[in-house]
Amino acid sequence: MAAKDLIWFLSEFVFYYPLVMSIVWIVGAFYFYLRREAGRRRRPPVLAEYPLVSVLIPAHNEEQSIRATIASVLKSNYPNFEIVVVDDGSTDATPRILLELAAECPAVRVLIMKQNMGKPSALRYGLMACRGEIILAMDADAFLDANAMRWLVAHFVAGPRVGAVTGNPRVRNRTSLIAKIQVGEYSSIIGMIKRTQRILGKVLTVSGVIAAFRKRALLDVGLWDIDMITDDINVTWKLEKHFWDVRYEPNALCWILVPETLKGLWRQRVRWAQGGVEVIRRHAGIWTDWRQRRLWPVYIEYVISVCWSYAFVSFGGLWLLNFIFPHDLPVAKIFPEWKGAVLVSLCLVQSAIALWIDRRYEKNILWYYFWVIWYPFVYWVISALATVWAAPRALFGHSKGKLAVWQSPDRGLFEKL
Fold it and tell me: What superfamily does domain 51-288 belong to in CATH?
């Protein structure tokens, strides 16, 4: 294939892949909204039974937020729950605060780990102490909505094959441009993808910040793997491979903190990208099992997305090189001529629809539409670069069995308020 033909093919791929996926997400999310959300009141369901829910919270250096997080859980409009907090080798005042909370409230139990073993290990140890059949795992810096537990449990009560239900994370720190853009991202990208995947019958990533599991399902798949950097993606794939139903419940709200600095955002996106490629590598065996054929399209789509990131970054690098040092090599713009305008316009349409749907959960969220215009310029570039950087590390650098330890998350400007 001639160089010009290859450039043409890759330029068409760079353009049409996000175009097609955006249309798929818009159609899927809108269909989910019409079928499962529109016209329904947001009153929490009244259940025939209220099984014990164990709220499992792994924590590492969370002295600034752990009290507020536990307080939000204690305000839950659910009659039967316990809280199990696992301190994973914190070096700040988190263990002392947890012991004080446990002494004050009988519903709170605490496990103290002397060494930082990583979030998956903390979840595994904590599960052994949970008495409930339903495990609600959430981050130690998140606020749980009072009715979230009812919405999540309703799925388990109605379906014996429901293995996990992921909730609806909402951004609560909005003091910087980066955080405000993520308000739109969680609606127009993450929320839309989960709605579309639910319609297609394969939700491939529960939100690690809020996800409920059936304990029997977790035991069936061997719990969380301790060597995966993104425990939420991997455990979802394990559940899907064992034919457990994974669902999305948009009414189960959880208010989260997101990175507000470029450094923190970069670290987060590299971790997400590395975790995704690790999962693809580990679960490549689905191609030898005909029963897993419904996972094949998702696997292919993720591989294509990685290829798109490399093509996008390569075109950007060649264009920049030609701009600084003009040469005669074949060069294509990242989005030549009218194509860039088409993609940006479709992105704005997608964001408008997503925010319009999510107005059910945040009345003033449409005001953030202004900040969404920056999404293509900031997040496409960062996400593509993060994938290019992280993929080799996931494929060749992370050894099986090595503990995936964590660091305290970046909360950016929120820590200065």
Answer: Spore Coat Polysaccharide Biosynthesis Protein SpsA; Chain A (3.90.550.10)
Number of residues in the chain? 417
State both tokens at 374.
């920056």
* Number of neighbouring beta carbons within 10 Å of residue 289: 10
Degrees (nearest 5) of the Cα angle 226, 229, 231? Answer: 65
Q: In what order do the strands lie in the sheet with 134-138?
A: 108-113, 81-88, 53-59, 134-138, 210-214, 162-171, 245-256, 143-144
d(CA 289, CA 285): 7
Terminal-residue alpha carbon distance, the chain: 57
Pairing of strands 162-171, 143-144: unpaired
Q: What angle do CA 162, 165, 168 make, to 5 degrees?
A: 160
CA distances from 129 to 55, 72, 233, 239, 407 (A): 11, 21, 23, 21, 24
What residue has token string 């043409």?
Answer: 8
Q: Please give the chain's pLDDT, 417 residues, in tens.
A: 566 667 777 777 878 888 888 888 889 888 888 888 877 777 888 888 899 999 999 988 888 889 899 999 999 999 999 999 999 888 888 889 999 888 988 889 999 988 888 888 889 999 999 999 999 999 888 899 999 999 999 999 988 889 999 999 888 887 777 777 777 777 767 888 888 888 887 788 888 889 999 999 999 998 988 888 888 888 898 998 898 989 999 899 998 888 877 888 888 888 888 888 888 888 888 888 888 888 888 888 888 988 888 888 887 777 677 667 766 655 555 555 667 778 778 888 888 888 888 888 888 877 777 777 666 666 778 888 888 888 888 777 655 555 555 555 555 544 443
CA-CA distance, 132 to 178, in Å (whole number)?
38
**H/E segment holding residue 208:** none
Domain ranges (residues) in the chain: 3-29+291-398, 51-288
- Strand residue runs (E) in 65-161: 81-88, 108-113, 134-138, 143-144
